[in-house]
Write the structure tokens for this entry.
Amino acid sequence: MKTIPFIDTSLEKTFQVYEAKFKALADQKRLHIMYLLCQHGSTCVCDLAEMVGMPQSKLSYHLKILLDVNLITKATKGTWSYYELNQDEVNHVLSSELCCLFRPSC
């Protein structure tokens, strides 16, 4: 009789979520964007494009990746978009929760 291995889907989902977040973080440009948002708080996309020295179209690509994994937030005021670091999510990624996955003594 062949047994079917048990797959912990909640653990698999947790790994998928962290994989997406770490993929988003594994880029110097996106880390730079997050650093600037940390330093300046809510920042207009036009100002952010100037700070990182890239066209707004290229910047939008990186912002979408960070938005998709909830590392930054977006607020629209009139015709402008303002981005801010999602400090709660950043703290969550850097939290003991993730460390506990790899430290059995937690």
